[in-house]
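Hi all, long-time lurker, first post. I run a small reading group and we've been trying to get comfortable going from sequence to structure in the token notation. Rather than ask abstract questions, I figured I'd post a concrete chain and ask someone more experienced to write out its structure so we can walk through it together at our next meeting. Sequence below, copied exactly:
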Amino acid sequence: MSTELVSDNVFRWALTFLTGGFAGAWLVVDAVSLIRSRHADRSDPVVRDKHFGYVIGIAIGAIGVIGCLRFWNVL
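-- Answer (accepted) --
Happy to help. Here is the structure in token form:
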């Protein structure tokens, strides 16, 4: 009898769903926020900081999703 709680395959799928889920949600939320704020006054430093943060969030989300896809040899 094995002392492991779950098999290696179940563990890999669970971590993939967690990582891909958080990264995908992060990507979507920041993309929607960036789209909604596209008509804001870009001369305002706060708006520029928000746009920069949204772009960084999109990049982080994309890295997470691409990393999960590469882990499973999809890409």
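A couple of things your group might point at:
The mean pLDDT is 95.
DSSP finds two helices and no strands in the chain.
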